[in-house]
UniProtKB/TrEMBL annotation:
GO terms for biological process: transmembrane transport. Residues 160-356 form the ABC transmembrane type-1 domain. The keyword Heme does not apply. It comes from Desulfomonile tiedjei. Belongs to the binding-protein-dependent transport system permease family. Pfam families: BPD_transp_1 (PF00528), OppC_N (PF12911). This is ABC transporter permease. It is a multi-pass membrane protein. Keywords: Membrane, Transmembrane, Transmembrane helix, Transport. The chain crosses the membrane at residues 29-51, 162-184, 228-248, 286-312, 333-355. Gene3D superfamilies: MetI-like (1.10.3720.10). InterPro entries: MetI-like, MetI-like_sf, OppC_N.
Length: 368
């Protein structure tokens, strides 16, 4: 058997998942997006270890400190392992302008698995080991610091955890609503279909951001951060289920008169069993694609609400809360590194869109 025949036999004996994965791997941007998404979720999962400092640690002598300059050449031109110099705050007594000067007398190499701020890893155990850092009195601020002297690099990872979890939890709730209501609407038809479709039309006739703002503004300001977190997630999911419901309805309308559905009816299967056991599995791949493309919308919704001050509020740290620090044009002009969290938002949105596009092409039998 030659190589071409072996490839053909492997293709004919492959499962649907294998065929989808082989087609997905041909999409370069989709693979890049998948790698970025997996890396970002892993970083959010282990952010206590990856972040060199705690998200609330303040360095009062490093307020608005620019990103640390990592060097490999010392002042004499000799090559060393990556290191930083200690930075010293200097304030002009006439203009009150802050500047940071490097003390080049001593080098502080960047080390791995160093001890620093204490943390509890998901409440399981207490540790103080961080992936990288430098010895005191030097400090390593990869993205600089904010107005309170907090490390922006560490806060970006902690903020990504909150924003990404809201996206996943919100999409999960939207998935339940969309599949259930869309399934009932498409399979049952009649008055149930009319009522559900009218509700969808009413929700979709409102602009998303004003509707988010109106619902979020109704939350009392004294609510704790955890309660606001879940309410924001519920608000986003209650608005975001309509697209999935319409997609499920359309698929069920096209499939409900197929022979396998009629056979299930004659066999005595109930309506819910037919919907969830026979109909929905036939287009699960399309549901996965829709859900994947919906996650960045949830992340953008949380970011927009928190940026406008009606979403999550400090001490909760999310990407939207971090971007709220960059609302002032003067602040951005003087401290442009405060805009770095927006790169995380852009990366999340683009990577999920690439993954969704790749999945859509992989599961579509008519795409090339």
């Amino acid at each position: 058997m030659n190589e071409e025949q072996q490839r053909l036999e492997k293709y004919l004996n492959a499962s649907t998942r294998q065929l989808v994965w082989w087609r997905y791997k041909k999409h370069t941007l989709a693979m890049v997006g998948l790698a970025f998404v997996v890396g970002l979720y892993l970083a959010a999962l282990f952010c206590e270890v990856l972040a060199p400092y705690d998200k609330d640690s303040r360095f009062f002598d490093s307020v608005y400190s620019p990103p640390s300059q990592v060097r490999i050449f010392d002042k004499d031109g000799a090559i060393h392992r990556p290191f930083v110099y200690e930075t010293i705050l200097d304030i002009d007594m006439e203009t009150q302008k802050m500047s940071y000067q490097e003390n080049t007398d001593t080098m502080y190499p960047i080390k791995f698995f160093v001890r620093g701020d204490h943390y509890e890893f998901w409440g399981l155990w207490r540790s103080d080991v961080h992936l990288f850092g430098v010895d005191k009195p030097a400090r390593l601020f990869v993205f600089g610091t904010d107005r309170m002297g907090r490390d922006l690099f560490s806060r970006c990872f902690y903020g990504s955890r909150i924003s990404l979890s809201i996206g996943m939890l919100g999409v999960f709730m939207s998935l339940i609503l969309g599949v259930t209501l869309g399934g009932v609407s498409g399979y049952m038809g009649g008055w149930a279909d009319s009522v559900i479709q009218r509700v969808i039309e009413v929700i979709r006739c409102f602009p998303s951001i004003p509707l988010w703002m109106g619902l979020s503004a109704s939350m009392p300001p004294h609510w704790p951060g955890l309660k606001v977190y879940f309410v924001i997630t519920i608000i986003l999911s209650l608005i975001g289920w309509t697209d999935l419901a319409r997609m499920v309805r359309g698929k069920l309308i096209a499939l409900r008169e197929e022979e396998f559905v009629l056979a299930a009816r004659f066999a005595g299967a109930g309506h819910l069993r037919i919907i969830f056991r026979h109909l929905l599995p036939s287009f699960t791949s399309h549901i996965i694609v829709t859900v994947t493309l919906a996650i960045p919308g949830m992340v953008l919704g949380e970011t927009a609400l928190s940026f406008l001050g009606i979403g999550l509020r400090p001490p909760v740290t999310s990407l939207g809360v971090l971007l709220k620090e960059a609302q002032n044009v003067t602040t951005i002009a003087l401290y442009p590194w405060l805009l770095i969290p927006v790169l995380f938002v852009i990366g999340i949105v683009l990577s999920f869109n690439f993954v969704g596009d790749g999945l859509r092409d992989a599961v579509d039998p008519y795409s090339r």
